[in-house]
Amino acid sequence: MSIDVSNTPSMYTINVSGSFTFDRTCGVRNDPNMATATVADYTAGQTVNYDSKVYNDGHFWAFYISASGVRRYVDYANTTTDEFFGTDTNSSEPVVPVDDTGTGTGDQGDLGTLTGQQGADVADQTADGTLFNDSGTFTFDEAAAGRAETLMTATHLQSWAIGETVSYTAKVKNDGHYWLRYDNNGTTYYVPYATISPFRYYGTDSNPGDPVYSQGTTTETGTPRDHRGTDTGTPNLTSSNTRTDVGEMYQYPSTSTLILTSNAWGRDAPFMSTDQANQLHKYLAGTHIEYTHKLFNDGHCWVVLKDGQYLPVSTINNAEKTYSSSTGTTKNQSSYSYITNDTGKHLPIHELSPYNYDCIGDAKTDVEDWESAYNLEDIDSHSLPTLTPDEQTAMDNISSALEENADPGSVSIAYIADTHYDSWKTPSTARVLRSMQLMSYYAKTYGVDLMIHGGDLNDGVKPKNISEEDINRAMDALKLGQRPYIVLQGNHDDNSGYARDETNYNGDQVITNAEATSLRTSNFSQWLNIPSNNPNNAVFGTYEVPNSNVTVIVLDGFDMPDYSDPTRGEFRHGHTDYSAAQQAWLKSTLNSIAGNRKIVVFDHISLAGIGDAWQDSRFNTDRFENTHTSSYQPGVTASNNIYNMLSAHQSSFHNILGFFAGHTHRDNNAFSGGIQFTEITCGLADRGDGEATRRLNDISESAWEIIQINPSKSQVKLYRFGYFGPAFTGPSFSGTWTV
Q1: Which residues form the SH3b domain (predicted)?
Q2: 189 and 44 within one domain
Q3: How many helices (H) and strands (E) does the chain have?
Q4: 256 shares a domain with 166
Q5: For FRET with 569, which of 52, 544, 611, 635 sits at 20 to 30 Å CA-CA?
Q6: Do 347 and 410 share a domain, yes or no?
Q7: Does pLDDT of 218 surpass 60?
């Protein structure tokens, strides 16, 4: 037969399955290129079971998973000589049809823009096996069956009943039907969701668009995809702009103990004057005190005893100046004024502006001296900000540079990390909400394919209900971008900092995994394809960028169970870990991604295994992933497992374009295991890179990126908005690399 590939680009792939029996010896390779060394052979009479076909280097290739779990290619036809090397059970080939004139200009338009009968009317002009990388959910209103292949004759492996919903990662046209691709405990399944003729949907799709081409015009080089993304519509904002006042008289939960070194009177109200409060009981020096809450009022810090008495423990001034944090094995006690061995450790004023400006020594954490010139600012969580001239210019420059450098398949991702939002701690932690809104402004106005927050959305050093209020405000700030978005899990997000350091390890103050799902993950689960085998409700999964050759892999380096009565070593706040389920999922996912498809990986934290490859290695010993603490070694091992899986995949396919993380609050990069690792600085002005020089009401208070991915060039380019350190030469910091 004659094979016409004049309109087919290199690495054109179709998602079809079948069996090919060879009539001669053909070599197996790690990529579809005849110049690549063979790793095995299929000989005459042997059969390969494939799940995709690829055109490249003048050949058709069958793409399959080997017995060792590695993706391989074997050529089965020479398109130059029109010669097939055996017989095939599936006649679909990876070819883009030419038009009637044979000029090499096809009639295929955009993929996935048609629905219903309109798409069915032209479906015969779309090749079987066409894959539309799309994600969403589909709720069935009639029964359907999952299969391992996109064939109606394939064995039924899973049943879907009326009312059940499947989360899918792609759509496929094949065998007279449209199919949804989905993950079933690490195995790829397909379920039909529509019959093409006579046309009928089997339910309701959250993301309509069928795997057929509209009949527009494309050239051989392809029409550039619109990397400005899809508007998700007016968001449902759920936060309150009324902040709960956590100042004087607010009671901070803290089930803890302390020892008096001086006599003190318990009172019926938190006032020192007997005109305002009655003295109820005199507690002598040396008394061991149990308390349930802390507060400050009337120039003093107080604890609330189990019987409701208020006991003064220090003047505010003494608590600011005499506080010392223990450095012994417990690490959860402090001393100040006439108190010792306070297992609640921190006092409310240490995490509250403006009191923390005056703190010294151990009492002063994560606040800069320059912040005393600013007041806490209420940022409206329901509105996008008005740009300053500098901000407008920077955004215009980034947008222009993106357009100039884009290839036809370019993808753009807005990325921020470590915002540590807290309405009350410092002027910077309150105002960083505006920085998130600035990124949303860019996404909505200039357009991006995806927005990613890299974790530590909130600071997690306030009572649980207060932190939850801040999480809602921060999530609304991201929703304002009106683009698909994902929020990774960091070590601060579950409020374990407050539970560990201010409440004597009180698990009730930790945001549980189920609560985190409701607060954060449920808002973006329609975009992030999270596997069902996920015992800790962790934030890991894939996002297939629509109409592109890019897969986003999201990892959760703090994938841990809930503990009702946690020890210090069980808090997420202090170490990294990946569950066995996440590790198994990653292995399966990497094996299922076509070798010609580009991958970018995001995690809050970097990986063990990178070692000394970091450009700035000053803080290597402080990294969670490098810790030598014995109780944390299972997490270090898991992190190293993730690194090994990614680097092994990269050595075979060279399609991981980058790994992005935050956590360290530093701009840093490393090339290790064949992968470019990049860490970005803190989105917050008073921590990490530039903490001494960044200022509020200046463009330097922000720090976020637009990541441009150019698949045809295997290129990544970063554009910085806001702060740039000494190593960078302009307000739109850009780093470029090619894999």
Answers
A1: 11-83, 133-198, 254-319
A2: no
A3: 9, 41
A4: no
A5: 611
A6: no
A7: no
Q: Which residues pair with 204 in a beta bridge?
A: 139
Residues 451 and 540 in one domain: yes
- ∠ Cα 587 592 594 (to 5°): 125
Range of the domain at 270: 252-365
Q: Do residues 667 and 716 share a domain? A: yes
Token pair for 591: 């094996």
By the 10 Å C-beta count (0-12 exposed, 13-18 middle, 19+ buried), 730 is classed as exposed
- Mean pLDDT, range 508-531, rounded to an integer: 96
Question: DSSP string spanning 322-370?
Answer: H-EE--SSS---EEETTEEEETT-S-GGGGSTTGGGG--GGG--S--GG
The CATH number for 350's domain is: 2.30.30.40
Nearest residue to 15 via CA among 572, 594, 480: 594
Q: What is the pTM of this model?
A: 0.74
- Say if residue 361 is in the same domain as residue 450: no
Q: Reply yes or no: is the peptide bond before residue 463 cis, omega within 30 of 0.
A: no
Please report the sign of the dihedral spanned by the C-alpha atoms of residue 91, residue 92, residue 98, residue 100: positive
Over residues 587-598, the mean pLDDT reads 89
The predicted pLDDT at position 223 comes to 53
Residue 127's φ and ψ, nearest 5 degrees, are -65, 140
How confident is the model at residue 4, as a pLDDT? 87
Rounded alpha-carbon distances, angstroms, from residue 65 to 17, 452, 597, 739? 12, 31, 15, 23
3-state helix, strand, coil in the chain (%, to 5): 20, 30, 50
**Which two three-digit tokens encode residue 387?**
């740009």
Q: Is residue 239 part of a domain?
A: no
In this structure, the answer to whether residues 194 and 273 fall within a common structural domain is no
Q: Quick: pLDDT tens for 462-499.
A: 999 999 999 999 999 999 999 999 999 999 999 999 99
Give the number of residues written for the chain. Answer: 739
Q: What is residue 101's predicted lDDT score, i.e. its pLDDT?
A: 33
pLDDT of residue 668 exceeding 60: yes
**The dihedral of CA 11, 14, 19, 23: what is its sign?**
negative
Total structural domains within the chain: 4
Do residue 685 and residue 596 come from a single domain? Answer: yes
